[in-house]
Every structure is written in structure tokens, then in C-alpha cells.
Automatic annotation (TrEMBL):
InterPro entries: Ade_phspho_trans, Adenine_PRTase, PRTase-like, PRTase_dom. The lineage of its organism: Eukaryota, Viridiplantae, Streptophyta, Embryophyta, Tracheophyta. Homodimer. CDD domains: PRTases_typeI. This is adenine phosphoribosyltransferase.
Amino acid sequence: MHSGKVVLGCRFPRIIKTTSPARCYAHPALCALLPVYHSSQSDNRRKKKKQQQQSSQPVRRARSNRGSKRRRREDSTVRLYRLMGEEDISNDSKSSCGCEDGTVEAPAAAAPKENGRAADPRLQAISDAIRVVPHFPKPGIMFNDITALLLRPAVFKDAVDMFVERYRGMRIAAVAGIEARGFIFGPAIALAIGAKFIPLRKPKKLPGEVISETYILEYGTDCLEMHVGATEPGERVVVVDDLVATGGTLCAAIKLLERAGADVVECACLIGLPKYKNFYKLNGKPVYILVESRK
């Protein structure tokens, strides 16, 4: 029996909750109806609760669907990044540069870009202006003759401009050119970006006090020299040459400048061999090339 009092005189018994023990002050017939009344009330509550559950169920289902869609989007994004990561890993190959202490790190797959930038229409004209002379200076050598490029002022200017566009704004204090053809591009680049030019020469070509760096060639050794005091400690320097093949000369230039305290930012070359295509590193320093050698 429900705890409370039954108030008579109303159409349906009204239960008033009380703290007193369970009592019912009513006619016995009315008391007999109370279980039926409570049963109907319980049924009504159950129906109402069920309706509320049914009305709230689509909302929960919609939220669940949104969550599953979000998870599917996240899973697809994860798969995309995973594929991109695998592609990056597959492109991270290494090969020897052929010099004493340097290594070349180059992407294995060819790409429609050079050195990470979109192909520039000036590159084709620069490549076409370089003459390839077979078997010079000895049999088996394909010599890249840049004098033909120098005879075309517009193309020569384009080559210099592309280097200037790269290094302007990089706080380059000095441009170091390697004898001999590094002297062709180095001074022009240095003047355009407001930097000084440092000549790196063969032995006994510079007067006064010099520092030198010896490096190993295929048959014997060679040496680069630089004036003492040509660069200050901490100065940012770019090394310029016309072509990179094995990288031995560039390795020696980097070591020579670093011994003087310079910070070598990058090496810049007009021509690179096909196996060194795109952006790669030489002895821990990036090497920037404009075109690759034609066969």
C-alpha cells in the first residue's frame, strides 16, 4: 500500500505524501481501488518513459553517425599521411659523391621540379646554350663548355639572375668562387646581392699569407688556397662553381672556409651530373644546381 493519505471527495483518489506510517483513511471499497490506480499510474509512467526513450533514440543515433563519419574522415586522413610518409621514406636514398669525406643525398625518383622549385622557362634556354664537347680534354670525357652561354648575354643574365633570386634576402656576407670558372658567376652574384667576393685559387696564385686545403683527385692530389682574413668568423658564405661532378673540389672549399670560421650556407653550381639531379647535400651542405649535364 502506498504511504500517505487518501483524500475523499475528488473523482480520483489523490495521494498526499507524509512522513507518518502508511495509513489509509477511506471507505474499504475505495481502498480496494488503490492497487488498480497505482498499477495504471505505473503503466503510464512506463509508457511515458518509453516514449521519451524512443524520441531521444534518433538523436543519439544521429550523434553516433556523426561520430562514425568523423572517425572515417580521420581514418582516411591518417591513411593519406601514412601514404605520404611512405613516399617520403621511399625517396630518401643515399649515394656516394666520390669525394674523400662527402656524401650525396638525392631523391631516387625523378620529379618535374629542379631543386624543389617549379620548372622555370629560363632553364631550357640555359641548358640549350651549354655546348657538350665529347672526348675533351681526353677520350671518354663529355666536356660542358659554358663559353657558348657567355656569348648570349640574355641567357647569361638569366643564369645569374636565377642565382641572385635565390640568395637575395638570405643575409649572405660573401660569395666564394672556385678557380677558374667559378670566377665567371661568383663576382656577378656577389655584386647583385651586396656581398664580397672571395677567390679560391690553385697553389701559388695568391700573394701574401694564405691558408690552404689539400684534397684527393682520381690520380693524385690538388689544393685550394685563400687569403688569410678574407672571411670573418660567423660570416654566411655561398660557394660557387660552374659544375659539380664528384664533389671533391667543393668539399675542399667547404673545409677551407670553415677552418677560417665561416658559415657555409650552400654550394651553387650551374651544371650538375644527372645522378645529382634535384636538391641534394654534399658533405652536409646543400648544393643548388640550375641544369643537368646533357649526354
